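Risk register update: the risk of archive-format incompatibility is retired. Evidence:
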Amino acid sequence: MREWGFAQTDPSQELAQLHYFSIKKHQAGAEIEFLITVKEYITPKEPMMHFFAQSNKQTNQKTAPYTPCGWGKTMLEALSECVRAIHRFPYEGQE
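Archived output:
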């Protein structure tokens, strides 16, 4: 367990360290920047889901708004799944 994990006194607190990433989606001659926050849980509810990544923007806003996200047992798995989700649907918001 990492040192910061000892600050959690009960697993229900879901203590997590945050990691931040940025990626640009190129669409219709424009660049849309997405910020991705990855939460690294010290004691995840599901052991295979130690990391959770979520973008700050939705895609597919005009049809069925979708918030790109990803889970994984490693940061790479969660982040990669979130990046794939960002490219799954078009960004239809204001830039």
